[in-house]
UniProtKB/TrEMBL annotation:
It holds the Pfam family DsbB. The lineage of its organism: Bacteria, Pseudomonadati, Pseudomonadota, Alphaproteobacteria, Hyphomicrobiales. This is Disulfide bond formation protein B. GO terms for biological process: protein folding. Keywords: Membrane, Transmembrane, Transmembrane helix. InterPro entries: DiS_bond_form_DsbB/BdbC, DsbB-like_sf. GO terms for cellular component: membrane. The chain crosses the membrane at residues 12-31, 43-59, 66-85, 105-124, 144-169. It is a multi-pass membrane protein. The keyword Transmembrane helix applies.
Length: 184
């Protein structure tokens, strides 16, 4: 696998992470389903995984960058699994409506596992590491779009979390944005 093909595949992976974060925002803003603390941590894990993939795009593919992505995805998967197990017992309820039969935390688990598998497969392409050349000039095309989308969504997640939690702990079952509450 060439370095350019690796960058393209990493850009597609980063766009996939951006799509998941976008869907989470649509659920949050359009449908009013505010994220619970575990949901916020799952997003943070996906953002950490995205940072590893973004490093591959900007600086060229390196095993350590894939390592960052794998660690972020494993963190997201562990948090998702905790939430799945929390709601798997009959009568405990669930958080948020199902999408195509599965709740968002189950989808987050499956997507995190897919990131780990994807990074594992990418690590099998040894040639991408021997040909690494720094990007000459600016990023263009799909890698640039992927990085821009990821940066915007990361900043939006930071702002959203600050708005939701304020300066304190995030509420277990949020009903409103703490930052915008007018009554004390």
């Amino acid at each position: 696998m060439s370095t350019e093909l690796s960058r393209l595949l990493n850009a597609l992976g980063l766009i996939a992470i951006g799509a998941i974060l976008t869907m989470a925002f649509i659920d949050q803003v359009w449908f009013g389903e505010l994220p619970c603390p575990l949901c916020i941590l799952q997003r943070a894990g996906l953002i950490a995984a995205g940072c590893g993939i973004a490093l591959n795009i900007v600086f060229g593919p390196k095993p350590s960058h894939y390592g960052v992505a794998i660690i972020g995805a494993i963190a997201s998967a562990a948090i998702s699994m905790r939430q799945i197990l929390q709601h798997i017992v009959p009568g405990t309820g669930f958080y948020g409506p199902p999408v195509w039969g599965l709740h968002l935390y189950t989808w987050a688990f499956l997507f995190a596992v897919a990131i780990v598998l994807g990074c594992g497969l990418m690590l099998l392409g040894d040639r991408q590491f021997s040909q690494v050349q720094p990007i000459s000039g600016r990023l263009k095309g799909l890698p640039f779009i992927a990085l821009l989308l990821f940066l915007v969504l990361t900043l939006a997640n930071v702002f959203s979390t600050l708005a939701l939690c304020g300066t304190g702990l995030c509420p277990d079952e949020p009903v409103d944005y703490e930052l915008f509450e007018l009554n004390d």
